[in-house]
Specification:
Elements lengths: L5 H6 L9 H10 L1 E5 L4 E3 L8 E6 L2 E4 L5 H4 E5 L4 E2 L1 H6 L6 E4 L3 E6 L1 H10 L2 H26 L5 H10 L1 E5 L4 E3 L7 E7 L2 E7 L2 E8 L4 E2 L1 H6 L6 E4 L3 E7 H10 L1 H15 L11 E7 L4 H18 L2 E3 L1 H8 L15 H13 L2 E5 L6 H8 L3 E6 L11 H14 L8 E7 L10 H6 L4 E6 L3 H11 L4 E5 L8 H12 L5 E5 L1 H10 L4 H13 L17 H11 L11 E7 L4 E5 L4 H8 L9 E3 L2 E5 L8 H8 L2 E5 L17 H9 L11 H14 L2 H7 L2 E3 L14 H22 L1
Helix pairs in contact: 2-5, 6-7, 9-10, 11-17, 18-20, 18-27, 19-22, 21-22
């Protein structure tokens, strides 16, 4: 086969036009040449290559794998065209076969030669990246149109792409607003879009769109206004097909119009291929180069892979994919970043969660990672006890990162993971980090303790299991039995919350106590008889000295933010008539406030707030726990709905109650006592919303404890057993169904 002189031919290509003679000569000497016959498969779908090839002679065809022969060809390429540029630049696998139509030859430039050309002629890399990015977006556009318009002529798809205009949106920028006239149809080729609807009740995001999504075609067909606002969650590129162009194609190509109508009908009928759920990009940043943080990062990544099937991506992975190292000072406009978006999008197309290592340095790599992030996670070391704030250099790193991640339309979620040495028994001084920076959530990770990293991973992936424990006096001891059943069945609790006596049991569990240790601690508290220190009923019937001592005995000076397991408690502020959710500060104060029965126990003063039992407004905080855990929530209800019955013949006189306390064996009175009346009054207002909060739960467990009195703490073992049996019965099937 007669081929043109390599040097002259190479110098005339768009990629190398203007290159120094030495670069051209080196390329001509080192480039490989491969002849092919008609029918040869030159590139096979699913394979990777770091080389690029020029068609020296002949014609090749790009074909969709697995398609019918008539529909397989999507493009023909002749002399001078480039093959493999998308795979070489992005590290993508090939998505189509390249098959020779006629005999011909290829000129192949491998990775080593590519690097040397770029050193002598930097414009080569810039041109190659531009070409690959353009062709990738064209591929995405054509694929989306083919999927939408089934059976559409490939030449028509190509013609449609040639007439479409490219639109670029910066993060937070609107494509169109709800109520606007529909003037175009769009195909998203890179980035991510959010679809938001607005009503009198506010705005709500109803969908997220990823590359390949079709946007706005239904409004074009119907001739109606936009039904939602669409805006960029990340920098996005779209192809715009104007209404005039759409109408012209519909007039000139009747089959095009029929295919579009069919696509709209399929979507309205729910039979169209569903859009991919947008994968989350979680960027993990280390505050320093401390070896413990490197180990914690590896441990967290392993847990994220186990919890959510996460894909882990690093700077080294990207450099290997594109074939060159990243300059730490590379500007945002540098062409090296052009393939970064598509590199991440490939990972998102195959995984629901992508974890990117943002490193430990404030450089260009960290900046680009943050610009693509949906969630930022900081791995930090504990602040030494006694220090009020993190080190200045740590705060400077946080401030720098926030500048890059700044988004005026949608604040990026920030989470804190504090890595502790393996010997740490309990976290301390977490408040220093929380006071010094604005984090949405925080978690504790103990190096070499996978239970802590697994918990953080599930919560970060939105797959946590929460447990909400209701109030109910002594009946709340059944919560210990439910927790015992969870432990036996291997159901890890990632977030726990409670009200009243449920808040006390939740606090013990969040400190890391086993159910045996919880039983022992409860017995110690019961022995102190904190509810039998009666006093003049000026503020309450029971004095606070014993109660305060029992709370301190149980929880000491523990701070909620220092708990291994995330925790919340609910109390009621009598001053504002609002529920108070305790998620930081003194654990002892939180459980005291949440369980301070008005009239029975002295309220808790917290600044200008008078706090009493949370059961007044929310006796089962499953709604709060579900929102925080992000996955499933188990609710345990120990306060029966019909617990108070009117006595026949009126209320019994006081002497009859006294007599029965003095004479064992007498038949108990079926008449409510003062404590019963107060406790029932306490929960009346929250009973009306109990049905709503129980609906928030994925599983509701109701131990059979109605026959136990609200103050029968001495029946602890029976109550724990009732909770254990109810927990086993409900959780065994539930865990299997999960």
């Amino acid at each position: 086969m007669q081929l043109p002189p390599p040097a002259d031919w190479i110098a005339g290509t768009a990629l190398l036009q203007g290159a120094p003679e030495a670069v051209i000569a080196d390329c001509a000497a080192r480039a490989g040449r491969r002849e092919f016959a008609a029918g040869d498969v030159l590139i096979r779908a699913g394979t990777r290559t770091a080389s690029i090839c020029f068609v020296l002679a002949g014609t090749v065809e790009v074909r969709l794998p697995g398609s019918a022969a008539a529909d397989a060809a999507i493009a023909q390429l002749g002399e001078g065209k480039v093959l493999g540029e998308i795979q070489a630049v992005t590290g993508h696998v090939a998505t189509a076969d390249v098959v020779a139509v006629t005999a011909g030859a290829l000129l192949e430039i491998d990775l080593a030669l590519r690097r040397d050309i770029a050193l002598g002629f930097p414009a080569f890399d810039e041109r190659l990246v531009w070409l690959a990015t353009r062709n990738l977006r064209t591929t995405v556009f054509q694929g989306a149109v083919r999927d939408l318009l089934r059976g559409c002529d490939p030449l028509l798809v190509e013609e449609l792409g040639a007439g479409a205009a490219e639109v670029v949106l910066e993060r937070g920028e609107e494509l169109f607003a709800q109520g606007e006239e529909a003037d175009a149809w769009y195909i998203l080729t890179s980035g991510r879009l959010a679809v938001v609807t607005s009503t009198d009740d506010g705005s709500r995001k109803i969908a997220e769109l990823m590359p390949g999504a079709s946007v706005g075609e239904m409004a074009i067909i119907a001739g109606e206004a936009r039904t939602a606002t669409v805006k960029a969650e990340r920098k996005a590129t779209l192809m715009r097909i104007s209404r005039a162009m759409f109408d012209r194609f519909a007039d000139q190509h009747p089959r095009f119009a029929r295919n579009v109508m069919s696509a709209v009908v399929r979507r309205l009928a729910g039979k169209a291929p569903s859009l991919r759920v947008a994968a989350r990009v979680l960027v993990v940043l280390r505050i320093s180069g401390h070896p413990m943080l490197d180990e914690a990062f590896r441990q967290l990544c392993a847990s994220l892979q186990g919890a959510g099937g996460a894909a882990i991506r690093t700077r080294t992975d990207f450099e290997s994919a594109v074939g060159y190292r990243i300059d730490p000072q590379a500007a945002e406009s540098h062409p090296v970043w052009m393939p970064f978006d598509v590199w991440l999008e490939e990972a998102q197309s195959a995984h629901s969660l992508v974890v990117v290592d943002g490193g430990n340095a404030d450089d260009a790599w960290r900046r680009e990672c943050l610009l693509q992030a949906d969630h930022c996670v900081w791995l930090v070391e504990p602040v030494a006890q006694g220090l009020a704030d993190p080190p200045p250099e740590a705060m400077a790193a946080l401030d720098a990162a926030r500048r890059w991640a700044k988004d005026d339309t949608q604040r990026l979620p920030w989470s804190l993971v504090i890595a502790h040495p393996a010997a740490t028994k309990a976290p301390r001084n977490t408040r220093a980090w929380l006071r010094g920076a604005e984090f949405d959530r925080h978690f504790h990770l103990r190096v070499h303790d996978v239970t802590t990293s697994d918990r953080a991973a599930r919560l970060l992936a939105g797959r946590g299991t929460g447990l909400a424990l209701s109030g109910g006096g002594a009946r709340g001891l059944a919560h210990v039995g439910v927790l015992k059943a969870c432990a036996e069945l291997g159901i890890a609790i990632d977030w726990i919350g409670g009200t009243s006596f449920g808040a006390i049991q939740a606090g013990m569990f969040a400190m890391g106590l086993s159910t045996d240790e919880m039983r022992t601690l409860n017995l110690e508290v019961i022995a102190q008889r904190p509810f039998q220190e009666y006093t003049l009923p000026i503020v309450a019937m029971v004095a606070s000295r014993r109660r305060d001592a029992s709370i301190h005995h149980s929880f000491g000076e523990t701070q909620i933010e220092d708990l291994w397991i995330p925790y919340l408690a609910v109390s009621t502020d009598l001053c504002s008539a609002q529920a108070v959710v305790h998620e930081s500060g003194s654990l002892g104060l939180a459980v005291s406030a949440s369980s301070s029965i008005p009239g029975v126990l002295v309220p808790v003063l917290d600044g200008e707030r008078i706090l009493v039992d949370g059961g007044i407004l929310n006796n089962l905080p499953s709604d709060l726990v579900k929102h925080r855990a992000g996955g499933r929530v188990i609710a345990v209800k120990v306060a029966p709905d019909d617990e108070l019955v009117a006595p026949e013949g009126g209320f019994a006189p006081a002497w009859k109650f006294v007599l029965r306390r003095l004479v064992p064996g007498m038949k108990p009175l079926r008449s409510p006592r003062l404590a019963d009346l107060i406790l029932r009054t306490l929960t009346v207002s929250s009973a009306s919303r109990m049905a709503q909060v129980t609906r928030e739960a994925d599983l509701l467990i109701e131990p059979d404890v109605a026959s136990f009195g609200m103050l029968q703490f001495h029946k602890i073992d029976e109550l724990i057993e009732r909770g254990y049996r109810a927990g086993l019965a409900a959780l065994r099937g539930w865990s299997e169904r999960r």
